[in-house]
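Lab notes, practical 5.
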Amino acid sequence: MRITAMVVFILIGARVFSLVFQGVGGKVWIEDMLTALPADKLAFWLLPISLCFLSAFFLDFFEIAFIIIRC
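Output from the prediction step:
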């Protein structure tokens, strides 16, 4: 029961983060940032991958996956 409650709290926290991120226009900001990159395909792929890598230092896999899927 304790593990289930922890997973539910992680999902609730990820959902709240996703809603706040969308509420402040984070999706538009990310789209603008990606379209402003040089036309290099490598830069287009390295930025999101590096952001996921850096967020892994602070967030759990479930939170990262839930945030990416919801956005």
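Observations recorded by the TA: The mean pLDDT is 81. The first helix runs from residue 2 to 23.
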